[in-house]
Amino acid sequence: DSGVTQTPKHLITATGQRVTLRCSPRSGDLSVYWYQQSLDQGLQFLIQYYNGEERAKGNILERFSAQQFPDLHSELNLSSLELGDSALYFCASRLAGGTGEQFFGPGTRLTVL
Amino acid sequence: DQQVKQNSPSLSVQEGRISILNCDYTNSMFDYFLWYKKYPAEGPTFLISISSIKDKNEDGRFTVFLNKSAKHLSLHIVPSQPGDSAVYFCAASGGSQGNLIFGKGTKLSVKP
Questions:
Q1: Were both Cys, which of A13, A21, A84, B1 would link to A17 (CB 3.0–4.6 Å)?
Q2: Residue B78: count of CB within 10 angstroms of its CB
Q3: Number of Cβ pairs closer than 8 Å across A and B?
Q4: Binary contact (A42, B98; C-beta < 8 A)
Q5: How near does any CA of chain A get to the CA of B36, in Å?
Q6: Which residues pair with A28 in a beta bridge?
Q7: Per-residue pLDDT at B97 exceeds 80
Q8: How far apart are CA A64 and CA A18, in angstroms?
Q9: What is the pLDDT of residues B30-44, one digit of tens each?
Q10: What sections of A1-112 are H helices per DSSP?
Q11: How far, in Å, CA of B11 to CA of A101, rounded?
Q12: What integer pLDDT is reported at residue A98 of this predicted model?
């Protein structure tokens, strides 16, 4: 158990809909990272938050947004969903300093029908 | 353009033998390289990392070697066990915020 929690584990929805994925980082970790893993793809970095502030953006679509709350949990909002958004979405948190390792949650599997 | 590449989608090894997983990268500014292991329906689990200023790091059965001139790293697992069967991802960290850039993974199968 990495100490990072994600809910829900599975989500099935229709095209055009909006969903929210939730992540709680490990106790004491201020950074939260979101990644997407599509079929046959490695994990793609989407966005990072540090202590409530956006710090870095990767390949995140404009239809997607995220935020980190004062209790450090984070939410990833996906809107106007398309079939191609079906993927595994992982959240990770990171120890301050360290050697770069991030600790991943179990992921949310999103299926868009 | 992929900055981190794992060119072997799969690898099969006999139990007790050595498993060698390879990874190539293009960006010489990466400062850490990491290996993650992933089982189906679970998140990636951190295995081992290496700083760009080192050429070897060892942790139990796992050793990572870094060849900076070739922009190549490898993960050695000795001896391999059936429980090591999983997808292994190579990742690099180089941005100031520490986001990871992953390869597409290599599926390791260790046969009893």
A1: A13
A2: 13
A3: 67
A4: no
A5: 9
A6: none
A7: no
A8: 10
A9: 989 999 999 988 999
A10: none
A11: 25
A12: 66
Q: List the beta bridge partners of residue A65.
A: A77
Token readout for A57 is 């953006």
Burial class for B83, CB neighbours closer than 10 Å (0-12, 13-18, 19+): exposed
The alpha carbon of residue A41 is apart from the nearest alpha carbon of chain B, in Å, by 6
Residue B95 has pLDDT above 70, yes or no: no
Q: Which two tokens stand for residue A65?
A: 């947004």
CA B91, CA B25: separation in Å to the nearest integer?
9
B4-54 per-position pLDDT tens digit: 999 999 999 999 999 999 999 998 889 899 999 999 889 999 999 999 999
CA-based nearest residue in chain B for residue A99 = B32
Q: Give the mean pLDDT of chain B.
A: 94
Contact A43 B89 (CB under 8 A): yes
